[in-house]
Amino acid sequence: MSLLIVGGDRDYNLLALVDAARLLQQPCQPFLIPAKSSPEFSWSFEDSRHLPSGLNLSEKPQAAFIRQDVFHYFEDARNEVTNRANAWYVALKGWILSQKDIRTFNRDIHQMASYKPTALFLAQQLGLNIPRTSISNSMNLLQSLDALQHIAKPVNGGGHCISLDQAISEIKLDFLPAPAIIQNKLISPEYRIFIIGDYEFTFLVDSPSLDYRELQDAKLALVNNPHHEVGLLRQLMQQMRMNFGAADFKTDPTTGELVFLELNTSPMFALFDQISQGKLCQAMVQHLLTVSDA
């Protein structure tokens, strides 16, 4: 059995996964692409073994884990850096998905999982608490809300959550250039729940910030799994044909109940793995190398 781990050489999440595989004494082949040079990669459809050259594989791996490289873009934000990372990801993920006997997370993931509004709507239908939510670009609607008690965030993800007051403070138009997710403001603590096959990990994320990612000021702790939310989250992931992901929850200031925010299909996990003393990454390796439906 072997595990192929693919992505950028600055991605500390992949390095943590490599460490976990080696700690478990599982054969592991990292293929980590540098920023300043490119390794060989040639996939010939005429090759009956379907083993691309350059991966240093003597035989097809049992399992593979891949992440698109975003870390080189953090250091160099040119479009060509992003385009290069995407080309490598498409080539390598395309090969992995074409080989149906290679186990990988979320192989048959539904397109619904890519759309945050859809995930919110389905979560509510299943019985998860969600914030009061509108998807809108109407200033009439936004100005009718208490701007200090509501937040705005990009409908397509990728940006930080900000207060509605900040989002509309300098807008002079009747309609914003694009719709945004508008929700009532929730409070800390936040929770991140990882689902990895049959494994579950819940982390408390305690931060004074509206979005802890902006200042990286969160204190993390591994806590007991909230069974009600985990059960409904598993139902949501089953609808989306996912066996790996991380969901974020915050706290309702009135009821104290957990409120579902979003489901991440390719979450960062290295810092959470440290808090779990390596158990999270070990679960990822064990699932990929031992579960028949991975």
UniProtKB/TrEMBL annotation:
Protein name per the record: ATP-grasp domain-containing protein
Top-level division of the source organism's lineage: Bacteria
Organism: Acinetobacter shaoyimingii
